[in-house]
Amino acid sequence: MKVHDGLRRMGLAPTATQPASTKRFPDGAEFRLEIPSVEGPRVLAEVIAAAAEYGIVVNRVSQGSGGMLLTNAELRDMAGLAIDAGMEVALFVGPRAGFDTGAVSRAPGGAAHYAAIRGLRQLNYAVADVVRSAEAGIRSQFETFPLEAANDALAAIKADAVRGAAVLAIA
Predict the structure, then answer these.
(1) Do the beta carbons of residue 129 and residue 67 sit within 8 Å?
(2) Mean pLDDT in consecutive groups of 10 residues from the start of the chain, 171 residues
């Protein structure tokens, strides 16, 4: 690979072989594989079939629209397929500013607001979206820490001792 001389002088040129990381997940695996934009049960079924065909372990799929755009039956189907395949389904929470009235999320410089939950009304809808998805069987892996244990949560993350996400509980 041709490397710019300035990068080489700064010690940023790639070496012939990179040292293998010694970091591992709790089950001993070196990495996790997530397939994004799995927007429904038919797509999830195709991901599962392709993973089986190629001998690939898919640990998690994510769906960026949230449960709000799926029917209860579709949520249940996704949950069942994922359980049978031993994978996690991560749904984004909706609705968010990009789905709401107003144009701030589409204005120049407004893209950062697209995924934000704005106001009490949207917060209520977002909580309802999470509850509805959970009632359909969607589960994410996380460990909860009380707010006063935030330093313990950071230490656990650093030590690779958290399976999934670390969540700080405020109340």
Answers:
(1) yes
(2) 76 75 83 92 98 95 88 96 93 82 84 85 89 90 88 88 80 71
